[in-house]
Amino acid sequence: MTWTFVLITIAGIIVKFLTSPPSALVGWFLNKFELHPKIDVSNSTVLFDGEYLDEDEKSRFIDSFNKAQFLNKNHIFPGKEELFLHPETNITPYIVHFKKKNKEMTFHVFNYENHVDVVKQWKKKMASYTLDSEYLQRKL
Q: Where are the transmembrane segments (predicted)?
């Protein structure tokens, strides 16, 4: 009789945990798959035209990048990756190298008058998305 009660209690706890997991667990799971991650200033470098930005400018750039509003994801078809990294424009991208734990990511940031395009590279993968950031659009 007591074993039945213990098993029902444990099953109830497991069901309760699965139906409403803690916020920290949900946040951790979503952060693993987010397309536009928050970048830490101390673990990143920003290059423009082959030169590193100074600390003040780098922190403003990364802060604006983190606060930028995600607009949409651009689909990259196999074989067309080079067109996203080197578009047929005269825009020089900002290149952000970011290391988080054992993940290394590179962001190529291209500005236009009404939006900012970002190409994210990690491992052997690539993704492209569009942001809206007034500072980045003016700055670049």
A: 6-30
Per-domain boundaries in the chain: 1-33, 36-139
What is the pTM assigned to this prediction? Answer: 0.79
48 in helix, strand or coil?
strand
Distance CA 104, CA 32 (A): 13
- pLDDT at 27 (0 to 100): 82
pLDDT tens digits for range 128-140: 999 998 888 876 5
The helix (run of H) or strand (run of E) holding residue 128 is strand 125-132
Task: Report the distance separating Cα 4 and Cα 67, nearest Å.
Answer: 52
> With contact defined as beta carbons under 8 Å apart, do 39 and 65 qualify?
yes
Measuring CA to CA, how many Å separate 56 from each of 5, 48, 61, 77? 62, 14, 9, 37
Residue range 62-74, pLDDT digits in tens: 999 999 999 999 9
Q: Please, what is the Cα angle at 121 between 89 and 100, to 5 degrees?
A: 135
Q: Which of 65, 85, 66, 63 is nearest to 74 (CA)?
A: 85
Give the N- to C-terminal CA distance of the chain in Å, as an integer: 71
